[in-house]
From TrEMBL:
Organism from which the protein derives: Roseateles agri
GO terms, molecular function: dioxygenase activity
Entries under PANTHER family matching the protein: DIOXYGENASE, PUTATIVE (AFU_ORTHOLOGUE AFUA_2G02910)-RELATED, INTRADIOL RING-CLEAVAGE DIOXYGENASES DOMAIN-CONTAINING PROTEIN-RELATED
Signal sequence interval, chain numbering: none
CDD domains given in the database record: 1_2-HQD
Known cofactor(s): Fe(3+)
Domain (Intradiol ring-cleavage dioxygenases) ranges: 129-157
PROSITE patterns assigned to the protein according to its UniProt record, in alphabetical order: INTRADIOL_DIOXYGENAS, PROKAR_LIPOPROTEIN
Protein name, as recorded: Intradiol ring-cleavage dioxygenase
Keywords carried by this UniProt record: Dioxygenase, Iron, Metal-binding, Oxidoreductase
Family note: Belongs to the intradiol ring-cleavage dioxygenase family.
Superkingdom, natural source: Bacteria
C-alpha cells in the first residue's frame, strides 16, 4: 500500500479493516471513516482547522473526570444523544416518550419510601410530586423502581457541588411504586439551568451564538420486570427555554403543569408558596415479555 492520495485514502482505510472479526464493529467503523472523510472533503478542511479540532477534543478530555463528562455534553449539544435516544426508543402511541439521560445520574442513590422528602438540604420551593406507573394496557405497574434526580434552585445537581460530608445525595432518590402503581415524594421546585459551560463545549456554544440553558425538568428512570426501561424527564410548562433546549430533549407530551399553591406551614413547614406536580407514566412491554 503505497502512494496513497486524496482519491484513494478512504478505500485504503476501509480495506485495512477487512480482517476485523467483529462484523458490527467493522460496519460502524466503515461508516464512520466514510463520513469523516466526506466531511473533510466537503468542507475542504485546512490543517489549521483540523488541529483546532484536535485541540478541542484534547481540552474535552482534560476536563473530563468521574464528575464531569464533557463528551456527553458534546454529544448532547450536537443533538447526537437525542438522535440515538429517539431511534432506539420508538414506542406505540400512548407510551411515555423517552428523552436524553444527561450526565448527572448517580448509581446507588438512597432508596426512600413513598411520601419521603428527597431534597436532603437542596434549596428550593417545596414541591410535591405524585403519579402512577401503568402499562400500555392500562394496568398499574406495582413495584416499579423509579429513580428521580434534579437540580436545585441555583441550577446545580448535587454532584456539581463540593461535598460537605453531610448531604451526599440531594434531590435524588430511588422509590418503588405501591400495589396500585402509585408513587409520591416531596422535593424542590425544578428551575431552568445552564448545562456546564465553563469548558470547551461552553466555548463552542458561545462561538456558535447558542445559549447553554435547559428548561426546568425532573429526571426519571423507571424499571420494572416485563417492561422496557424508560429514561425521561417531565418539563415545567411555561418555561422560557422549552423551545430552545440546549440539548434538544423537549417533547410536548412530557410538559406538565406544576401547580402553585399558597403557603401552608402545616403542610410544608415554611411560609412560602409550594408547588405540586401530578404526572403518570406509561411503560411499553419489553419485547421478551410481549
Ligand atoms: C441534564 O438534564 O441533566 C443534562 C442533559 C444534558 C446535558 C447536561 C445536563
Ligand atoms: Fe437535568
Amino acid at each position: 500500500m503505497r502512494n496513497i492520495n486524496e482519491d484513494t485514502i478512504t478505500q485504503a482505510v476501509l480495506a485495512s479493516m477487512a480482517g476485523c472479526r467483529d462484523a458490527r464493529l467493522r460496519e460502524v467503523m466503515t461508516s464512520l471513516v466514510q463520513h469523516v472523510h466526506a466531511f473533510a472533503r466537503e468542507t475542504k478542511l485546512t490543517e489549521a482547522e483540523w488541529f483546532q479540532g484536535i485541540e478541542f477534543l484534547t481540552r474535552a478530555g482534560h476536563i473530563t473526570d468521574d464528575k464531569r463528562q464533557e463528551f456527553i455534553l458534546l454529544s448532547d449539544v450536537l443533538g447526537l444523544s437525542m438522535l440515538v435516544t429517539a431511534q432506539n426508543n420508538a414506542k406505540p402511541a400512548g407510551c411515555t416518550e423517552a428523552t436524553v439521560f444527561g450526565p448527572f445520574y448517580v448509581d446507588g442513590a438512597p432508596v426512600v419510601d413513598n411520601g419521603a422528602d428527597i431534597s436532603n438540604g437542596a434549596k428550593g420551593a417545596p414541591c410535591f410530586v405524585s403519579g402512577q406507573v401503568r402499562g400500555i394496557d392500562g394496568k398499574p405497574v406495582p413495584d416499579a423502581a423509579l429513580d428521580v434526580w434534579q437540580s436545585d434552585d441555583e441550577g446545580f445537581y448535587d454532584v456539581q457541588k463540593p461535598a460537605d460530608g453531610l448531604h451526599e445525595h440531594q434531590a435524588r432518590a430511588r422509590l418503588y411504586t405501591d400495589a396500585q402503581g402509585r408513587f409520591d415524594f416531596r422535593s424542590i421546585l425544578a428551575q431552568h439551568y445552564p448545562i456546564p459551560h465553563d469548558g470547551p463545549v461552553g466555548c463552542m456554544l458561545e462561538n456558535l451564538g447558542r445559549h447553554p440553558w435547559r428548561p426546568a425538568h425532573l429526571h426519571f428512570m423507571i424499571q420494572a420486570p416485563g417492561y422496557e426501561r424508560l429514561i425521561t424527564h417531565v418539563f415545567r410548562d411555561g418555561d422560557k427555554y422549552l423551545d430552545s433546549d440546549a440539548v434538544f430533549g423537549v417533547r410536548s407530551s412530557l410538559i406538565a403543569d406544576w401547580k402553585r399553591h399558597d403557603p401552608d406551614a402545616r403542610k410544608t413547614g415554611t411560609n412560602e408558596p409550594y408547588y405540586s406536580l401530578q404526572y403518570d407514566f406509561v411503560l411499553n412491554p419489553s419485547k421478551k415479555a410481549a
